[in-house]
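Shipment paperwork, digital attachment
Item: protein structure file
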Amino acid sequence: MSRDGGSSIGTPDAQVQSHESSTEDRLRSETASPRTLSASPGHSLSDTDRADVGTESDEVGASSAVWQLAVPSWLVSLVVHAVVIIVLAFLTVPQPEKNLIVATGEVVEAEEEPIEDVLEEVMEPVNLQELEDAPAELESPEVPVDEIVVPEFQEVDAAPMELKFSDFANELAPKNDLSASIGAITGQGLEGRGTEMRARMVREAGGSKGSEAAVALALKWLAAHQLRDGGWSFDHRTAACRNQCDHPGRDSQARIGATAMALLPFLGAGQTHKEGKYRKTVQAGLAFLIRQAKPRGKMADLTDRQGRMYSHGLASITLCEAYAMTRDPQLLGPAQYALNFIAYAQDPIGGGWRYQPKQPGDTSVVGWQLMALKSGHMGYLVVPKLTIAKASRFLDAVQTDGGARYGYTRPGGGQATTAVGLLCRMYLGWKHDHKALKQGVAYLSKTGPNNNLYYDYYATQVMRHYGGSEWKKWNGQMRDWLVKQQDKKGHAKGSWYINGPHSEVGGRLYCTSLATLILEVYYRHLPIYNKAATEDDFPL
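Attachment content:
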């Protein structure tokens, strides 16, 4: 029997036994030849013998007998058995599998999705009540930038050292038909910030030496209260102030919003990270914003714990304005990514924005997001048409008197919300002679400026763009009152604290930012109805 229990007939063992028997019989009967070969040392096979060994059995012929006589039977048996054992080993030992990894799907090269596809992508709802509670999969490492190290403020004008923006800034270039002109054009509506144009517009639009002096003092105060990391805080006491200025804000964790509000007056006065007295101040502030951005695919989330979408809107305006003014490619990515997040965060049904992404909107938050989109549009960044159309739908839902007045989350007619709504309508394309716009302007003119700087900020822009006698009346009241209210002594010199709505939350930094922006209204944005180029409204 064989090893596997089967018959040995026909197996190599049976053939070997038969071969051994026949060989022994021949050795007994035949006479040894004089040329007998032995296996002893000193003897070897001839060339003829070597050729005969290993040939097929049907070709052996006469030399077969010589081969059989030359090789002892025990050696033949040994060789044959060795061969058999090796063969059986290969038959019984399992061979290793060659294909242990099997591909079950087709490999396809990943292609980058266009911006429009990303914006339309259905995403899971995101809970952003607290940023630290955000799902881990939505969190990304901080954008790498050079570490900001700033010595103690020795002078009022001292600012953080020069920084390079992160590589994240270059990740996106808008693929619109204007991308070929990037770097060769200036954002529409921002040309008034240049030195020569600014001086002329101050004279023509109703500014004064007093208003410009107030702006200069305000920028000096803001620069002196910049923190070592390049940002600002509504609690301004943590900087070089050392508690010398009163009325700090409560929202100390809204760092992104505070930094954006502090930077906007510098940009409004034509100060950028490329040129100007406060170049390093602006550069460090922009670097802080970029470092705080949380990338999410082709989006950058600039919300913070207390400011939420308010902070994102303000930071987006800042990045877009800085890019539009300088055409710095390092700002192109962050600015476009910030706009992409605004489009994503919009309420898909009502078309508004509020504290958290996708939440039904309120007019206040909507105002900042639309201003950011307009700033991006002036810088020839990508602004989705659908986003603008939905924003108009929201304004329709909260308006009264045919669009002359606006509420907060539903139809109404508050002062601040009406000012926000009217400014948004202007940027969305309402003409100067629109009936509801005329009625709204008349309402603001009758109400006049007051100690609500939030209302004053939006209403001043509406009146400036509208022009005429309504603007002259408004400007005379607003400008002179603000100049008188500015602090003139001590460490608070150049700042404001106006005791009004929201002032306790934002504190002196909040008041100083809005007051400065109001006094920069003469040149910060060119008047919509006085320049044909600015009639290039949002894509609708």
